[in-house]
User: Fold these one by one.
Assistant:
Number 1:
Amino acid sequence: MVTLVVSAGPGAMDSYSQKLAENLDVPKAYTDIYQRIRERFNISWFSREALKAVPQDWNFTRRLNKLKGIIHLPNQHFGRYGNFLKLPYIVTVHDLIRYLDLKGYETYIHQPNRRDKFYLSLDCKGIKKATRIIAISEATKKDLMHHLGIPDEQISVVYLGVDHKTFRPSFQTSELEDPYILFVGSEHPRKNLPTLFRAFKRLKEQPRFKNLKLVKVGKAGGPERDFRRETVSIMNSLNLNQDVVFTEAVSEKDLVAYYRGAECFVFPSLYEGFGLPPLEAMACGCPVISSDSSSLPEVVGEAAIKVSPHDIEGLAGALEKILTDRKLREDLIARGAIQAARFSWEQTAKKTLEIYKEVEKTFG
């Protein structure tokens, strides 16, 4: 028997566990512990929040150890609890972004302080101890093998899904009057917004795009850094403050409207463990431009224009093509619908259940 740990919260990794819970008939253990983990990045060891975390972590670990059978931990930050579990467990790893920050290879989100380094190291140790690891892309699997030295046979790849009941073609569009290109996500350095801004600036230099806007949907990021201030600073340096529209997190209904109303969706990310927004855009009938980095080529396939995340001219050229070539837009929309249809939460749950059965044969 496998018990799925389901994390409350609005984030993408929370949504993964919630969608699995909707589609799997297995025991579930609900928690909001990951929401607290996310809110505590970059706090001091001796802060009130850090001291509160210790008994909360201990109580959560005790709760897990009272379960029977096998436990499925739904994201890599639950790995820290795996170190103290008596039961066999499966852990899903979405990405190694925080690990790469920890090792100083890049700054994809934020350089961790001492407390974060301790907990991120625990996460990695817990991942290595897992009975089985589910990676959400081949790119994440390769990272696990390369950076953590985990053997191939310990890792199973199960792609995320698209909620096709929500993300589908619709007549509803956003209320913006001007044409716009769309970005959905945070403002972490890995999202590569400066490149998008600079490519957008090239377009705005042409009179025919004078009314074009760039809409950015989603929160800036976590509390560990003032991501919005950095974003606005770059935007203002390019004199784009009248042409970029910020929204915070929106409902799924409103998000569909933004996808439907956009001229195209742009995702220039440097690193994604999977990257659902391009598929959601495709499912809604919006043409997509994506970077060609990390997991994104395996996610978008041949249904998007792929550009190097560092190629400002290439991105500007791709945007101009989609904005001016109706046949290209229609072709991308048609290919996007086929590509998005390959991913569903029902399929994700089915493959996850197969892994449960495999692990149960050994440890059940």
Number 2:
Amino acid sequence: MLKVGDKLPAGTLQEFIEVEGNGCSVGPNSFDVEKASAGKTIALFALPGAYTPTCSAKHVPGYVENAQALKAAGVDEIWCVSVNDAFVMGAWGREQKTGGKVRMMADGSATFAQATGLTLDLTARGMGLRSNRYSALVQDGVVKTLNVEAPGKFEVSDACTLLAQAKALKA
């Protein structure tokens, strides 16, 4: 299981790009996790699924609202990772107004979630294998803080908790 001091697992995540540029075409683009996190401080938060109640009402909006404060605290990028395809993550990002604030990273086959060891089996609820809800501060690919939620909870992976941790790391 992923823990503080570990490097993020190798692999790729996909992001739906709205505007062509910077070597990216419109539509789903794959990003190597190691290369995308190299030399950066990433506020990464993962959640069970797009359009689910807590994720849509609390988790993503908290990071959108705190995006400027997180960047002021030394965060280069904010990643939302979920076991959904890039099309769903792109549509959800448009609805949540994440543009320029939060990168909506798709883990369509749950490979990244499985590599972290932070999975949640929601097969009985018709959702299959998903990511557990958590947040992490990652510097140059290394996990500096990790906040893993108990099943069904939303108490430690919120944007305010990660913001306080980013400020403490910067100090």
Number 3:
Amino acid sequence: MDEQRIRGLMGLCVRAGQAVFGEDGCRKALVQGKCGLLLADGNISLNSRKRYEELCERTATPMRVLPPGLLEEATGKPGAAMAVKPGSFSEQMIRCL
């Protein structure tokens, strides 16, 4: 994993408005098919992680777990998960992870 490149892509993604945060927002994006990649922080609770994994499996959306704290460091937003909208950002992140 190229951590520096992922940080850069995550920051760009947020500035471009291609990211959704919060449990409700991420779940809604997954259900509506507006999520190309779900990034979960390594500190996420086991119950939340299991719920996201099940939802990602049902919607055939890739999910990656990041090192603890990386999500907040890269985006400046606290949270357990970030849904990346389908498109070039999600594709580039999948290749880097």
Number 4:
Amino acid sequence: MKNIVPRINAVSAKSKKSGNDNSKEAFNEVLGNGSNYHVNRIKTPARCTLPLQTLDTISRHITVLQGCVHVTLGDDVIVLVPDESIYIPQGLLHGIENRANDCAEIISVDYFAA
């Protein structure tokens, strides 16, 4: 993976809140639902952090539409820019950070285990 960078600090445990400014909150819009999937468009303000989490029954595919996001996967951090995506298998610790000074936007597709 060419875009792996070191993790610089722990991700906030507060759900959908920035670790730096509690007034900043991610915006989540549901785009679609099915029997085994859920599609969301997520906008994250500048310096916003989505918490680390492990989903035992859900795998996730994230695509960046706008901005630059740092995706934590276990002990690694991968930088994604527009038109790049990543697959997150079930049970893997992951989180998303927007370290930039501009808003970032992603599409998240969650697949539920049968």
